[in-house]
Amino acid sequence: MAPHQIEPDVVVPIFSKHTQQTDLPHLTNPKVQTETNGHFDHVKPFELEDHPIDETISLRVAVIGAGLSGINAGIIIPIKVPGVDLIVFDKNADVGGTWFENVYPGVRCDIPAHVYQSTFSPNTRWTEEYAQGHEIREYWQSVARKYNLYDRFQGNTKVIGAEWNGSDAKWTLQLKDLKSNTERKEYFDVVITAIGRFNAWKLPDIPGIQDYEGHLRHASNWDKSFEPTGKNVAVIGNGASGIQVVPNIQKIVKRLDHYARSPTWLAKSFAAEGQGRNLEPNYYPKETIDSFDDPANYLKFRKELEGKFFDRFGSVFKNSEKNIAAREDFTKLMAERLQKKPEILDAILPDFSPNCRRLTPGPGYLEALTEDNVNFIRTPIARFTKTGIITADGIERNVDAIICCTGANRDMHPPFSITVPKVGTLAQAWTPDTYTYLGTATPSFPNLLFIQGPNGTGNSGTVPNQVETQVTYISQLLRKVTQQRIRTFSPSKAATDDFVAYSDAFFAKTVWTENCSSWANGGRPGGRIHGHWPGSASHVNHVRKNPRWEDWEWTYRTETGNRFAYFGNGWSAKELVDGSDRTLYLRKPEEVDLRSYHEEWW
């Protein structure tokens, strides 16, 4: 027998991890056999697949949610992943997410609009520095139209559940058409959740709430027909929405009872980006808006503004100079705003550090608390009655309307069941704590990805930038799946455990682990942190630029499971087309940038 050959019927043994490469014969085309219970099961010999290496497979992808994350996914993924068939589902009639749903008085972005927008399709003509909700909604809908997202969008469609079918390697989505009230099933290779952090508002779990006969609403379910003028109104909660609602209705209601048990820090702005927010609109002068028509001038403006949001990371560390300075600045600011009723300061000033809970600028909020028609109530609510609210001290206050600004689910669980048979539900896997690899996926839940999932968002920076980089990371993953004909993928438990261990060690150094109740810890003071990435925005962006594919577990579509089956017949597609340019790498020397040379995937 000639060197480096083997008889056709030689059995490939099951090697231990200690087998050395020098112990193995050089195989040309063996009949692959596996051992089960001492018996060998014959498997078809490996044969070349007849296709060029760069012929990609099709991939059906469902994106659940059409807010900022879903819009970006619906635009970017089809461009970066050839062959993808993508649909964006949302329970709402149109795209926009939280900006479609929230229409309460005073709803607006609490960071400047020029950094709360796409980096690749900016609006240079925002009317206000801190845009109102309707202008933000209209902007994101215009981006969706520009990139033809509506061709891939299905609104009024609620996801009831998702179940994995291992034999077909597909997800079954149970969908409900909210217009026709009918249900149907659709099947996808990959499911991506883009449902946001606060995707399911809920009324507070307070005894007697069902007995109240007045106007009862959650701020995220605002009734546009409700007119608060001249009424006695209760507002429960002092999170972001409560802090916006209170000053915007205080001037028109007869009496405002504000129930706020949690102390909170009020800041002038998020990143010292300027004069900060005011209760009244900060309109841009026409000459400023017109100056942004010059692309170079606008780019300079935006880089200077956006860069400030990357500079605030140092304030999240315990006893850091920036955090100590923030405590001093915010205390002084809050005292100035509460001069009419200085006793409120002691009630609302936290004993935990700034940034333990999310900062809120809250213009006009503290000033509203000092007005004569406002009762600032720290006493816990005991129960609702038919006509109002009774607190733990026995005092009953009757009101015409109750507005609950009590937030949404803080455990980051999707509002529908995601099930893998013999594994369980994602909610079970995330109880008592969420469990993800890089905030993007969870072991044992194949072909399931998250945008802005638990531990998926770095502190500092901007939300749009981080969504774009995470969608780009996901696009790289899906491109690998289509190019290499991968059947299933999920992160390994070992890699996920290492990420969780790193995260816990990092968070211990930050103020997020202090004794405050926040969405970052699921409302459990001192609980594990799932609302932040363990690092800065620049840190997570760096991680996403260099994927660790070795942390993932893969199966392949080929019958033999050979990872190199996608090599095909040895040809590339361009070689099979006469006249195609096979030397795209050749350019004028002055056009060559060696940093990216030979790395462009397209």
TrEMBL record:
This protein's UniProt keywords: FAD, Flavoprotein, Oxidoreductase
InterPro entries for this protein: FAD-bind_Monooxygenase_sf, FAD/NAD-bd_sf, Flavin_mOase-like
UniProt key word Flavoprotein: yes
Record keyword Cell membrane present: no
GO molecular function: flavin adenine dinucleotide binding; N,N-dimethylaniline monooxygenase activity; NADP binding
Chain segments annotated as coiled-coil in the UniProt record: none
Family (UniProt): Belongs to the FAD-binding monooxygenase family.
Protein name as it appears in the record: FAD/NAD(P)-binding domain-containing protein
